[in-house]
């Protein structure tokens, strides 16, 4: 039987990595991993989603094969992440350039949607989001609308990015023209493809960053959206008011600091700068307490303080999709709530009463575990 709390972590990993095989194989007891979210046992084929492991009843066990990008097929049909693609012709179906685009003898597909408008013979998938044929350029989200601004002959996607593209006249982000961006000098930052620049401006996810100095603009951390130039600190496209660029650095996750303050997602906080430590995106501590950051992490810390939690001995047990478990020397916690009757030395999330917590907001062990 699957452990729900551990299983949802597996599913989250699979869906975050929808277009790429995970570096580590998600193991489910008694099942063989086939790739993406597909499994099998001695009798059936399964597809995992956020709710559990689902038997693919239509699938043919002997002919079932996993393709790229979450697609699969057998003699009975074609599937995307376990969902049937009605009308898809299995024999002629294949994935284009290892992207989310695919085709058969009748139509183009992206995920669970099919499109019969493109010219099949000249259709080219440029990446997961952009494609073109002899007649026009396509962006998946605005598929039904003509990409009228794009020049077919010179259109190309930016390297290492599904979002940015350009032609001889314009630069695009998610299929929309970026005003005032110069395609001849436009390039992405190597540290983070969220950021880009041309000769005169810096951009974040298609937005121009006003007041940014292109000459000395630098990204501070590849995993966060913090950046700075000689005069200002930025979080994404926004200036962090009052932040000191010379002393500013990234702490961890979405936290940064300067000589005066800790910042969370670019917002000033009241954490103790000398003792602040983030465990992850959900939990942090300083010398005054432990905090569960379930909403805006820049709220006053007293609003997020976990009652009775000891910052000296506090540690994380398990981070799940909906539930986070932690403990200190005396107590066990789920999210920011103390679990009644739980022993920190012997606690297992298998014994937590999930349904009772969802229904009542009160945290306890399963009745037979008390």
Question: What would you say about this model in short?
Answer:
The protein is built from two helices and 38 strands. With 370 residues, the chain is mainly beta. The strands form ten sheets. Strands 1-2-3-4 form a four-stranded antiparallel β-sheet.
Notes on the protein architecture:
- The chain has 370 residues and is mostly beta strands.
- Helices cover 5% and strands 31% of the residues.
- The protein has 2 helices and 38 strands.
- It has helices at 4-16, 354-360, and strands at 32-35, 38-40, 45-49, 52-55, 65-66, 71-74, 77-80, 83-84, 94-95, 101-103, 108-110, 113-115, 124-125, 130-132, 137-139, 156-157, 164-166, 171-173, 176-177, 187-188, 195-197, 202-204, 207-208, 218-219, 226-228, 233-235, 238-239, 249-252, 255-257, 262-264, 267-268, 277-278, 283-286, 289-292, 315-319, 324-327, 332-334, 337-338.
- A hairpin with a 2-residue loop joins strand 7 (77-80) and strand 8.
- The radius of gyration is 25 Å and the shape is flat.
- The relative contact order is 0.06.
- Mean pLDDT is 88; it is low at 1-23.
């Amino acid at each position: 039987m699957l452990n729900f709390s551990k299983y949802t972590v597996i599913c989250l990993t699979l869906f975050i990595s929808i277009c790429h095989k995970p570096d580590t194989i998600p193991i489910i007891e008694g099942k063989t991993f086939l790739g993406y979210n597909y499994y099998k046992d001695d009798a059936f084929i399964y597809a995992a989603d956020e709710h559990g492991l689902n038997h693919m009843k239509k699938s043919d066990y002997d002919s079932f094969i996993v393709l790229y990008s979450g697609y699969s097929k057998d003699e009975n049909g074609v599937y995307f992440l376990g969902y049937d693609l009605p009308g898809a012709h299995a024999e002629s179906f294949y994935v284009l350039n290892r992207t989310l685009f695919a085709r058969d003898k009748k139509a183009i597909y992206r995920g669970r949607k099919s499109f019969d408008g493109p010219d099949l013979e000249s259709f080219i998938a440029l990446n997961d989001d952009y494609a073109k044929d002899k007649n026009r350029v396509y962006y998946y989200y605005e598929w039904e609308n003509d990409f009228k601004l794009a020049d077919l002959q010179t259109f190309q996607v930016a390297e290492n990015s599904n979002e940015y593209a350009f032609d001889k006249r314009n630069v695009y982000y998610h299929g929309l023209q970026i005003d005032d961006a110069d395609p001849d000098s436009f390039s992405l930052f190597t540290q983070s493809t969220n950021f880009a620049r041309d000769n005169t401006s810096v951009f974040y996810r298609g937005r121009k960053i006003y007041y940014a100095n292109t000459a000395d603009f630098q990204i501070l951390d590849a995993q966060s959206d913090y950046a700075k130039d000689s005069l200002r600190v930025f979080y994404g496209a926004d200036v962090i008011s009052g932040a000191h660029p010379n002393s500013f650095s990234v702490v961890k996750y979405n936290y940064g600091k300067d000589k005066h303050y800790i910042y969370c997602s670019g917002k000033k906080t009241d954490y103790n700068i000398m003792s602040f430590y983030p465990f992850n995106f959900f939990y942090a501590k300083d010398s005054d307490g432990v905090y569960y950051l379930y909403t805006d992490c820049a709220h006053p810390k007293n609003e997020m303080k976990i009652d009775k939690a000891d910052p000296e001995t506090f540690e994380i047990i398990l981070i799940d999709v909906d539930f986070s478990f932690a403990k200190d020397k005396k107590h066990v916690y789920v999210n920011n709530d103390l679990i009644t009757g739980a022993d920190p030395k012997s606690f297992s999330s298998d014994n937590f009463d999930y349904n009772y917590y969802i229904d009542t907001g009160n945290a306890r062990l399963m009745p037979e575990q008390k």
